[in-house]
Amino acid sequence: MATIVDRIRTLLHNPEGQRISRQARDQLNKPDNQRRLRQLAQRLRRRG
Fold first, then answer.
1. Is the pTM of this model over 0.70?
2. Distance between alpha carbon 23 and the CA centroid of its chain, in Å?
3. Alpha-carbon distance 27 to 6, whole Å?
4. Dist. CA 13–CA 7, nearest whole Å
5. pLDDT one digit per residue (tens) for the chain, 48 residues
6. What's the rounded Cα separation, in Å, for the pair 40 and 47?
7. pLDDT at 45
8. Which of 6, 26, 8 is nearest to 17 (CA)?
9. What pLDDT shows up at residue 47?
10. 17: nearest Cα among 29, 4, 7
11. What was the pLDDT predicted at 48?
């Protein structure tokens, strides 16, 4: 049985995984999304 890391590694080495990775990078480059992620990180830090 493949571990989760093996499955992710396999996904990232096929065309679909590369497309998903590229889309994620494009979304993370948007200032609005960066702001949302920072706000989420702050909320999660306050909980712990």
1. no
2. 10
3. 25
4. 10
5. 789 999 999 999 999 999 999 999 999 999 999 999 999 999 999 986
6. 11
7. 96
8. 8
9. 86
10. 7
11. 66
Residue 13 has a pLDDT of 95
Three-state SS at 16: helix
Q: Tell me how far apart the alpha carbons of residues 13 and 20 are, in angstroms, rounded to a whole number.
A: 11
Longest CA–CA span in the chain (Å) reads 40
* Amino acid at site 16: E
Q: How far apart are the first and last CA of the chain?
A: 34
Residue linked to tokens 């990775």: 21
Dist. CA 33–CA 31, nearest whole Å: 5
How big is the chain, counted in residues? 48
